[in-house]
Design a protein that fits this description.
The longest helix has 17 residues, at 221-237. The radius of gyration is 20 Å and the shape is elongated. Helix 3 (108-116) runs parallel beside helix 7 and helix 7 packs across helix 10. It has two domains: 2-105, Beta-grasp domain (Ubiquitin-like (UB roll)); 108-237, Alpha-helical ferredoxin (Fumarate Reductase Iron-sulfur Protein, Chain B, domain 2), CATH 1.10.1060. It is built from ten helices and seven strands. It has 242 residues and is of the alpha+beta class. The N and C termini lie far apart (61 Å). The strands form two sheets. Strands 2-1-5-3-4 form a five-stranded mixed beta sheet. The relative contact order is 0.13.
């Protein structure tokens, strides 16, 4: 089938504003959008810039906005996009992050927020044996958070980051924190608390659920944020230091 793609272009070395360029290609309905973009780059326009790596929905590098919704290009099929009757596929870079070139965004702010929550295991005591055993039922509590691939789709889709508080840590950072603060083996909750229990921490979230809707890994992102809020509230009620 013949399809048209309207792709946002921007080269900071020569453009003052982003603009859209249309490409027409033949594509199989079951073809992935990433393959279509690669075909355009190889055969029509080698200047087109976008990120890709694994092409299997694991690395998260090819996240972009497709017809207004955040998607991974490697997991998006042409037939699924065209099924809604669009005349063309409109592709834009992720929102709220500075555009470096075309569909590539600068993830510095997103990754800085990620690092603020100390997204790694913190242990202050020695393990009871050779390793820290965790039963399946306790691992199940954190399993969703371990699926995050840091694609930044949730950050792009977040109405709070877009319109109200660009300093908000963002959904992905809180999910990464949640993965550890609810880990029965981790002992770093109080170290993460200053960033989480902060006006720009978990509290700006207004439960719009956009983050959950666009997550390519099926993480209930809003739920993870609310569980983290609940843990902080319980900690404070138990007399934890302010």
């Amino acid at each position: 089938m013949k399809i048209s793609l309207e792709i946002q272009r921007f080269n900071p070395e020569k453009d003052t504003e982003p603009y859209f360029q249309t490409y027409t290609v033949d594509a199989d309905p079951s073809e992935r959008l990433l393959m279509v973009l690669m075909h355009i780059k190889r055969t029509q326009d080698p200047t087109l810039c976008f990120r890709k790596s694994c092409a299997h929905g694991v690395c998260g590098s090819d996240a972009m906005v497709v017809n207004g919704t955040e998607n991974l290009a490697c997991k998006t099929l042409v037939k699924d996009i065209m099924a809604h009757g669009q005349a063309a596929i409109r592709i834009e870079p992720l929102k709220t992050l500075p555009v470096q070139r075309d569909l590539m965004v600068d993830q510095t702010r997103f990754l800085d927020n990620y690092m603020k929550v100390k997204p790694y295991f913190i242990a202050k005591s020695s393990p009871p044996g050779k390793e820290r055993i965790q039963p399946p039922e306790k691992h199940a509590v954190i399993e969703e958070g371990t699926r995050c691939i840091l694609c930044a789709s949730c950050y792009s889709a977040c109405p709070v980051v877009q319109k109200k508080n660009p300093q908000f840590l963002g959904p992905a950072a809180v999910v990464q924190a949640s993965r550890f603060v609810h880990d029965s083996r981790d002992e770093g909750f109080e170290e993460r608390l200053p960033q989480l229990d902060h006006p720009d921490g978990v509290w700006p979230c207004e439960n719009h659920f956009q983050c959950t809707r666009v997550c390519p890994r099926g993480i209930r992102v809003t739920r993870e944020i609310n569980l983290t809020k609940q843990k902080i509230e319980a900690y404070r009620k138990q007399g934890g230091p302010a």
